[in-house]
Amino acid sequence: MIAPFSIPSPDPAWRTLEIPVPWGILSIQMYALCILVGIILAVIITSRRLTKRGAEPGIVLDIALWAVPLGIIGARFYHVFTHPDDYFFEGANVWNPLEPGAIWNIWEGGNAIYGALLGGAVGVIIGCRFTGIRFWSFADALAPGLLVAQAVGRLGNWFNHELFGSPTDLPWGLEISSANPAFPAGLAEGTLFHPTFLYELVWNLAGAAVIVLLERRFNLRWGKAFGVYLIWYGAGRAFFESIRLDPSEMLFGIRVNVWASFAAIVIGIVLILVQRRRHTGDEPSPYVPGREWSAPDAEVDSEDTESDSDSLDDDVEGESEPGATAATSPSRSTSE
């Protein structure tokens, strides 16, 4: 019997969005669409936050052009190399993108957040070098937006009927068809599972709100806001990962992603402590010294000020003309 408040899995037909186009049917995976929407939201949020801190409007796009592709590549390869049995087996053709299960086929699912963080960080470093933005300024501005993006991305797991948790009797359990290849053998039809996608979605949105609220009371610049992100996400992910049923590589009896979550927590704590000691004040600018950007309004104001100053000098010189003979008399020293 299905619990009255159980969460149904979407119809498998919803997994793919088919759009008629002149040359046929364009198929878009809902999983990919969720990731795309998450990326767009993260860019918008980060851009608004960074612009408020003095950065040029739209400069986030210049960094995203590096961070997003490298983040996607990192997410895919981290997943592949932490799930080698799914790709590297006898008879597998992992290099041919036309074959199902190839390592390049990101549209089939299989992306890892920690891989996205590693690859995306490399992209941010490159983008920041080109734009002159401080790496930690960008990371702090990104922190809440990144959690929002991850929350939206988890909806893709719901559409794919994947990465659910262990069986549960809770009223909000997730309904999974027994025909699903991931359905554990030996369990009865109608068994409910922990909706880990929903847990992480709520946890991430709450984390984004926590970072924004903490910023109102504490100085979370110089990478400290990103440190809070690492601690918050790592703590939640360590728990959600431990109740998931999907196969994963194990290290000393613990899932690899749980170890990665522990590492994220430690890095976040160290980052906050180190930056708190190194930087006690606020950031002077989101730009590195010598790469600052001046707003057009500021430039106009500066020009107006210079113009007014020149006019004032002209007026003073004009007023002093009647006494010019005394001012230029040889009997007066110009060094007085």
For the biggest sheet, the summary is: 2 strands, antiparallel
Helix content: 40-55%
N- and C-termini, Cα separation: 100 Å
Helical/strand content category: mainly alpha
Mean pLDDT: 83
Strand order, largest beta sheet: 1-2
Runs with pLDDT <50, length 5+? Answer: 298-336
Beta percentage is 5-15%
Number of strand segments: 6
Query: Could you state the order of secondary-structure elements as H and E?
Result: EEHHHHEEHHEEHHH
| Whole-number total of structural domains | 1
Shape type: globular
GO molecular function: phosphatidylglycerol-prolipoprotein diacylglyceryl transferase activity
Enzyme class: transferase
EC number: 2.5.1.145
Family: Belongs to the Lgt family.
List the defining traits of the structure above.
mainly alpha, two-stranded antiparallel sheet, 9 helices, 6 strands
Structure notes:
This protein has 336 residues and is mostly helical. It has one domain (15-278). The chain contains 9 helices and 6 strands, in the order E-E-H-H-H-H-E-E-H-H-E-E-H-H-H. The protein has helices at 30-52, 59-82, 113-131, 135-159, 196-217, 224-242, 256-278, 296-319, 324-327; strands at 16-21, 24-29, 174-175, 192-193, 250-251, 254-255. The strands form 3 sheets. Strands 1-2 form a two-stranded antiparallel ribbon. A hairpin with a 2-residue loop joins strand 1 and strand 2 (24-29). Helix 2 packs antiparallel against helix 3 and helix 5 runs antiparallel to helix 6 (224-242). The longest helix has 25 residues, at 135-159. The protein is globular, with a radius of gyration of 28 Å. The model is unreliable at 298-336 (pLDDT under 50).
